[in-house]
Amino acid sequence: LSCQISGYALTDYGTVWIRHPPGKAMEWIGIIWGSGSIDSGNSFKSRFTISRDTGRNELYLDISSLQTEDTAVYYCAKTDTVDQFS
């Protein structure tokens, strides 16, 4: 999955991936901070990879071995902090 960012630079703020499975609560997948470091939810560490291209200002989510439970609406969203130490 890809997310084209507009209105801010990926290096200026953290950006999260979240998903909303049908009939269930939203789930936090992980965040890539302005510095480029990544934090992921425990249940997403093994099959989900977050990356970015700062030149294109795009965010990516790669999911390996897709499963039926991965069916969801996926969102990327800006946070109000640049890194985990802010």
Automatic annotation (TrEMBL):
One of this protein's GO BP terms?
adaptive immune response
Residue ranges occupied by any Ig-like domain in the UniProt entry: 1-86
What superkingdom does the record give? Eukaryota
Q: What keywords would UniProt list here?
A: Adaptive immunity, Immunity, Immunoglobulin
Q: Which Gene3D superfamilies match?
A: Immunoglobulins
- InterPro entries hit by this protein: Ig-like_dom, Ig-like_dom_sf, Ig-like_fold, Ig_V-set, IgHV
Q: Pfam family of this protein, just one?
A: V-set
Question: A cellular component term (GO) from this record?
Answer: immunoglobulin complex
Q: Which residues cross the membrane?
A: none
Identify the SMART domains for this entry: IGv
What PANTHER family does the entry give? IMMUNOGLOBULIN HEAVY CHAIN (PTHR23266)
Q: What is this protein called?
A: Ig-like domain-containing protein
